[in-house]
Records
---
Amino acid sequence: MKDKLEAIKRSAAERVKETDSLTALEELRLSLLGKKGELTQILRGMGNLSPEERPAMGRLVNDTRAAVEEMLNNSKKHISDKEQNMRLAHEKLDVTMPGRTKPVGHLHPLSIVINELSELFIGMGYEVAEGPDVETDYYNFEALNIPANHPAKDEQDTFYVEGGLVLRTQTSSVQIRTMEKKKPPIKIIAPGTVFRSDQVDPTHSPVFHQLEGLVVDKGVTMAGLKGSLIMFVKKLFGNETKARFRPHHFPFTEPSAEMDISCFACGGKGCRVCKDSGWIEILGCGMVHPRVLEMGGIDPTIYSGFAFGMGLNRIAMQRYAITDMRLLFEGDTRFLQQF
Ligand code: DAH
């Protein structure tokens, strides 16, 4: 029995040395010390020994077991250290290495202008309203007091869609949609895309952008309109900006006006930007026509309102000194990356 124990110990030492993974080591442990393991078998044989032999043999078995366990434990520690070192070497990170940058998109110059103008008007108490790009003839023309034979409805100007719909030619359509939904006081802006069948050239595009404004309440006046718009252009173009209003005609406002601002390039002296006039036309505006209020379900004997509409592309072009409107729509990233 003693020899057997010696043999087990020796072969265990050799097999432990040959083992180089934790799973193999666990298998080895089971084959030695497990329920059916070699040492366990010997322990079972103790029953056949005489009472005198048992204590000494018992001690020997225990010593052997302890020795084998120690070998196994040492090897386990050794192997797991080695495995960890390998893993660490494999996963080594060079934190000083420069990162990989992904190209990030950014806002289109038109979006920048829309956001900036919206922020300005929101600061003046306006809410942002929206309407569909594909409109009915009613919202785009009829409810805005534009009669059936009006030149704006001409096929030359308007894209007609099947089913009597049009691509909206102006954001003014949002005026009626808003009045139908909301009771006064109403104070909204509506930035959006509009469409007209214009020939493409440096200052014209069949797709462009407008920002509409509508204020309806008791006691809204032309003086209020002028005050609000002057405040707006001073905020947008600087405090020294001057404004003037010229009489004009729009079917949906009465009286109507166009607003010019003093040229921000030359301060009003006259230059190429303002074609030597010192002024730049910036928007159309007026007091909402009583018929339009009625169409929106609002009683014009109680309420009055003002409205305005401006082209955003021109503002973006002026702001960034862009000389060709087509650049705003062509999606050339070399151009767009500048903003
Ligand atoms: N809808 C007009 C256009 O497209 C712009 C406009 C003028 C809007 C006067 C208004 C306004 O609300 O009162 O030319």
Note: The mean pLDDT is 92.
---
Amino acid sequence: MAFIELDVLNNNAEQLALGIDLGTTNSLAATWRDGRPTVLRPDDGEAVVPSAVYFPEDGFPVVGRGARERAMMDPGHTLFSIKRFMGRGLADVQADLRNVPCDVDENENGVVRFHIRGRQYTPQELSAMILKKVQDVACRALDGAAVTRAVITVPAYFDDAQRQATRDAARIAGLEVLRIVNEPTAASLAYGLDQKGDGRIAVYDLGGGTFDISILSIEEGVFQVLATAGDTHLGGDDLDRALADEARREIAEQIGDEAADDPAFRQALRLAAEHCKVELTRQPRAQMHLSLPDGGQWRRTFTREEFEALAAPWIERTLESCRRALADAGLGTDEIDEVVLVGGSTRVPAVRRRVEEFFGRVPHTELNPDEVVALGAAVQAHVLSGGTRDILLMDVTPLSLGLETMGGAVAKIVHRNSTIPCQATEGFTTYADNQTGIEFNVVQGERELAADCRSLGRFKLTGIPPMPAGMARVAVRFHIDADGLLTVSAKEESTGTSSSIEIQPMNGLTDDQVEVMLRESYEHAQDDFDRRRVADLRAEIGIMTHAARKGLESVGAELDRETREDLEEALAVVEREARSDDAEVVQKARDAFERATLPLASLMMDSVARTALTGKSLDEV
Ligand code: ADP
Ligand code: MG
């Protein structure tokens, strides 16, 4: 319902270059835009390209999400984890060959070749396909601009041959490589740690199939890798497998081992397990739902505790690598100044907790861990394109700005770290029938509830003509000028009624306060998510029950007695359940109530149609 437009006004032209994270599991690109690195996400799709290639019987290879999906149906013609083979000979990759569904050999120069559908492909060519797809997505996000220059990242432990293979892949893809950059260095750049003075950084990167820990030092802006350690076969896939194995065991009891080992079913199980794992990052329990090979259905709810117990041994193994890396660097955890989390699997709350305990400090998680490498590569690409670094993190809003909505949640309108000057507009509407005024509470902060953010001021828009709830179209515009002065204005579109206030938010908080608020928002993220969901659901239920009462008043007599009593009962139930703090309970109550109102809704629709025919106004119904 909301419409958001964000016009960033300081759009100075410069030569664009991409920062590309070419990952084992996922790849993506970012670039420098409007004074900061930004992930390139097309309007109609996702930024992330799964690093997978599928070879159909005829036609071009399919790269990315499509390939991942095709693998379910046809696992024999999909290649994953190509990065493991870059710059390696057959002898180096014995362990990885088990997961390759096709014949593999080596050419006279010791380059691995995959034989698939009657052709041979080197890892460089396959990686080039992925890079091309990433470039494609990036260019689409840039409205079709043709960008061919790029910084590409590699793990810190990559040797010359592996780096050269990456360069070659880029050349094959038609990209001009500005530089190959270490992933942990890129992650540190994304956080601006090069600007914080000298220090030592631990970068903990848990991706899909690999774990890397890197200890870096920065001296006068120059990065040095002090030590690396890790496990080339440990990552999110293992967490998926742990969940999938648990599910498979239970399913096999039901349908037997043979059916449970059906290859297509195993793929489906793997995807369902990953989905369940991701859900468990956001909520305390999640359901795994599978169609069994025998046509039956299987459902099982996993709790976060169950998952964490399965994940614990893997997490402990990453910490052993951390100990090793520290020992190699000759450092204790107390000599590490910053810890940075990288990789999609560091979204798992238990991982964050254990890493924090291990290093004894709160790790950086402000940026998305699966985007941070690409963002850092974009910083480097910008610097290599002649841009200066100084403008990074200058002239940005330190905290998000937004409005309190019905139910006490916050609608963020200008996001944290937006470059200024900027403006953003969002649409709001009235909550009650014939509401002639709206009070706006302008808030600043990262938390999801207005009560936990800082209120910057309130103002009222009055003089909205009486109309039914939800009909008014009120556009609220936030404008921050170059001096950081915020003006918020609201305008009712049909009548042009408007009102505004000027606020000075930028010097209201000290850096320390900003730090504290940020930290709090990360600590409370899950809590907030649930509370926000409950607040939104309650507001929705409020509108629904109001409408149902009005409907009962006007056309309720036309309902049969049983339906009416059911509805009245449902009203009482939903109002009681809405007081619960459990989002699941409130969601269920809302859904059940919606079902109970269906007969009334269709009756009201009929009645509106009849009214139109007889020429009576809505008020008279
Ligand atoms: P790589 O660097 O290996 O290419 P990524 O950093 O993109 O990979 O990490 C991919 C892994 O992150 C996958 O195993 C995926 O399941 C996992 N992942 C992504 N999002 C989440 C999440 N919200 N919770 C748990 N794991 C996640
Ligand atoms: Mg990665």
Note: The two ends are 28 Å apart (CA to CA).
---
Amino acid sequence: MASLDHSSTSDYSASNYNQTAAFVYSAEYTTPILSLLKTSIGERIVDFGCGTGELTLQIQEAVGASGLTVGIDYNNDMISKALMNGVKHAYMSDLQDIQILAPVLENSFDAVFSNAALHWCKQNPRGVLDGAKRLLKVGGRFVCEMGGFMNCIGVRIGLHRAVKRRGYEPDKMDPWYFPTIEEYQGLLQSAGFRVDTISLVPRLTPLLDGGLRGWLQLFARQTFLKEFSDQEVAAIIDEVVDMCEVDMKDKEGNWSLMYVRLRFLATLDA
Ligand code: BEZ
């Protein structure tokens, strides 16, 4: 996807996600969070924001036939792909208000796992924690990696400026929640979790397929930029790409984005 046709790449479909953002579930980037999860045979684990199911499948394999793994995602296309990929149980739900799981499953899970999803839960981050709490046994683990403070620095500023210049309020359009350690730790504690480890981890991330333009089309077109026409989006993306080039494009023409991961392990207190 060297040059992008705006119309064909603007949707957040499973296939566009797999094409442009496969790094999200690559072994290189997911080994730390999967190691923190420390799955055992027979465990019951929910994956919040399972996407197309690549990590859910690994967890499903690790818990074995005596365990249970359930994937949840907001996007039905992702759920269909996860099921096609071999995830046995996957359901569509807003992570901020999980309604889908039967009451019989409440307080029955050993762990809630989440990778690269909870930064989309800006509207009600506490709702996510209340859902996790409802599903976990006392002593259950909440193991997560998400965008944290200063994530995507540069791109976010560019989007805010471009949108503001057009007379819109960027804070209202910005769909991302990138909390500090202190903020998320406080939220976890107030929801009844003990925070075992929490850190912010900078991770320079090469944008292989489509560079920054592809990334913006996939992750911002239908969220941050959803109010705009295709023509306006094309102009905004040109502006942001132009602004970010000095820092994010190397001499060989390769783009990288500075991701900052908020990574934590918390335990549900009695
Ligand atoms: C992230 O994984 O940090 C992320 C992905 C898409 C948009 C914003 C952040």
Note: DSSP finds eleven helices and seven strands in the chain.
